[in-house]
Amino acid sequence: MADNSYETKAFAAGMLNPAAPKPDEIIGPNGKAADKRYNVYRNNVTVSLINAVADIYPAVQKIVGEEYFRAMAREYVRAHPPKSPLLFLYGQDFGDFIDGFEPAKTLPYLGDVARIERAWLTAYHAADLAPLDPARLGMVDPQRLADISFTPHPASYIINSDFPVHDIFLMNRGFMELAKLDMAIPQALMMTRPQTDTRLILLSVGEHVFMDAILKGKTLGEASALATETDISFDLNHNLQMLLATGATIQINLDGQAI
What we know:
Layout lengths: L5 H8 L21 H22 L1 H7 L1 H14 L14 H6 L10 H16 L23 E4 L4 E5 L3 H8 L14 E6 L6 E5 L1 H11 L4 H11 L5 H11 L2 E6 L2 E2 L1
Antiparallel strand pairs: 1-5, 2-3, 3-4, 5-6
Helix pairs in contact: 2-4, 3-4, 3-6, 3-7, 6-7, 8-9
């Protein structure tokens, strides 16, 4: 059970605020003041959280440099105390924080890179559910194909950006050689983890619209119509094969029932 006592709240309130005074209830041996001990502990808590953020966002750190990153992460930590004792859950809104962090305005793609890194870690820790067996599609009445929907795998994510963040992420994670990029080229990607390895799939405009609609629960017919409106060259057969091959879904649904 959580300790909601006044003393506990007072102790925690100052942990991430260097300007907060030591709570009066905190005393050292023999009743002496414990300001120095409290400040050391407070600094250690802040540093450990900064380290946790750095572990989750190595590509962001590589882009801006360690000193810049740790200064930015310190501001984030002070404004966003953890809500769970599990450190891998910390920093889920770091991408949004970066979007609003004034010194990072010159790097408008940075928040999207952070969102990829966050999704990467979340996908890694997602439930180990078996991806949809493509053979199950053969159980659907061909006349009803347009009416089916799919249950997404919990490790599946769509990330869309106005910048080439797929390539930026891969370059700064060491998966792709560094090269000059055209920053005016938008990129969308789908992240999946059908077995044990997380995968990133770069999507065309039509593929992005289709996959995004499917993972949001749209029917096959609805997703296909949306994609065709966006991209006249959209190929439903290719995209359906791609959807099944990537392991992005776990179940087919028809009329509210799994089949």
